[in-house]
Amino acid sequence: MKKILCPVFTLLVILAATAQGNNYVQDYTKYPDLAMTPPMGWNSWNKFACNVDEDMIKQMADAMVSSGMKDAGYTYINIDDCWHGDRDEKGFLSPDPKRFPNGMKAVADYVHSKGLKLGIYSDAGSQTCGGRPGSRGYEFQDALTYASWGIDYLKYDWCNTEGLKAEGAYKTMTAALKRAGRPIVLSICEWGNDEPWKWGQNVGHLWRTTGDIYNCFDCIKDHGSWKAFGVMQILDKQEGLRRYAGPGHWNDPDMLEVGNGALTAGEDRAHFTMWAMLAAPLIAGNDLRSMTKETIEVLTNKEVIAINQDKLGIQGFKVSAEDGLEIWAKPLQGGDWAIAFLNRNTTAKKIDFNWATQKVYDNVNTLDAAFGTTTYKIKNLWDKKDKGTATTKKAFKAEVPAHDIITLRLSKTK
Q1: What is the Cα–Cα distance from 42 to 311, expressed in whole angstroms?
Q2: Cα–Cα distance measured from residue 301 to residue 152, given in angstroms and rounded to the nearest whole number
Q3: Residue 361 class from Cβ within 10 Å (0-12 exposed, 13-18 middle, 19+ buried)?
Q4: Is 212 an annotated catalytic residue?
Q5: Residues 114-136: pLDDT tens digits?
Q6: Which of 194, 212, 336, 362 is catalytic?
Q7: What is the DSSP letter of 120?
Q8: CATH number, domain with residue 392
Q9: Strands 206-208 and 185-188: what pairing?
Q10: Over the stretch 184-224, which tens digit does the pLDDT of each residue have?
Q11: Could you say which of 152, 157, 194, 287 is catalytic?
Q12: Of 207, 241, 257, 307, which residue is the least packed, with the fewest Cβ within 10 Å?
């Protein structure tokens, strides 16, 4: 009898141990089929930093609708740092009761009622950058909490992460979100230090490629222990990264400074256009409640947004750069192309773009504009005017004002 029972007992023990082990196997891959085009929305940090509260977030949701931004494709209302309250005796986190007296689920419900989605912020370290409770050691609890609130997007920062390895830390949060059971976009905000473009594709839906953006067109802000970068400096740091981007996984050069006052109208246009050309997330960072007509026109230019949201998901590339004038190109669905003439100079520059001799070729995706054999209709996406056709018989001539841009869509004729 013992000879029969012992093997059976052993088998039961093995099966039980195996079953228990399987219960702890984690899924370190992100939710699929999210952010298939670059996310569009708003984030509180650039304008408000730690000054966030329930009323302001609801007002931003209202303004996103009334301004036409929702109709233009913006979806996310993202609360950045400093919303946090304390953890309870079991480690579960609540929002600051003074700032969010009705709780975060009530905010999510309000945002959802507007046809929008709510994003939130945490940090892979013990504390957030603003000194609030981080998620280190609480990843699974926090993910369950976010799911119960109805959160749709998580920006996950990298302050106070002593001893952590970025890839492992972000995989832990990815597994936690997967276990919580609610599809949530994961924004990896690791500042590009550990080259997240090389490992982030299966872990998150977007990843920061640089340190923080600074509200200027062409400068660097030195904070001593770290630096923030102007729009042009951020742009330059995208060199070599385009092959890592595509539907569901995007290079993130940080949030937009459009409408925050330091940039001229031309600089706002250039900033917005280049983020569109980069297939970057379009996350506004201004006060949506008090936008000028000019700011709204930039942020809701549907034809420039269409370049960003193109289903091919190809990041644009620099064709040439000479004397501060850069030519950029981005392949689009259906054989169309976007061409941008960026003037980084403090004086105007003239364009004489010869379709017969200028080669535009995407060597990552092996796509050729083939101006010599293909006819395109030309439209200027900022003055909204048709500019004829791109043919070998006539060059495109124009003048780009200082710190401004001319953006063309070339539509392939049948």
Answers
A1: 22
A2: 25
A3: middle
A4: yes
A5: 999 999 999 999 999 999 999 99
A6: 212
A7: E
A8: 2.60.40.1180
A9: parallel
A10: 999 999 999 999 999 999 999 999 999 999 999 999 999 89
A11: 157
A12: 241
Domain that residue 45 falls in: 40-308
Whether 180 and 52 map to the same domain: the answer is: yes
> Are 293 and 356 in a shared domain?
no
157 catalytic? Reply is yes
Treating both helix axes as pointing N-terminal to C-terminal, what angle do 104-113 and 139-149 enclose, rounded to 10 degrees?
Answer: 50
Out of 308, 343, 363, pick the residue that ends a domain. 308
Model pTM score: 0.93
Residue 196 lies in a domain: yes
Structure tokens at 130: 């603003």
Q: Which residue type occupies 364?
A: V
Provide the 8-state DSSP code for 198.
G
Long-range CB contact pairs, 58-65, < 8 A, 24+: 58/107, 58/110, 58/111, 59/289, 60/288, 60/289, 61/110, 61/111, 61/114, 61/116, 62/114, 63/288, 63/289, 63/291, 64/114, 64/116, 64/288, 65/114, 65/115, 65/116
Encoding tokens for residue 411?
């539509």
Instruction: Give the number of domains in the chain.
Output: 2
Q: Are residues 289 and 330 in the same domain?
A: no
The neighbour count for residue 148, using CB atoms within 10 Å, is: 14
Q: Which of 253, 283, 308 is the last residue of a domain?
A: 308
Q: What is the pLDDT of residues 288-341, one digit of tens each?
A: 999 999 999 999 999 999 999 999 999 999 999 999 999 999 999 999 999 999
Two tokens at 407?
């953006």
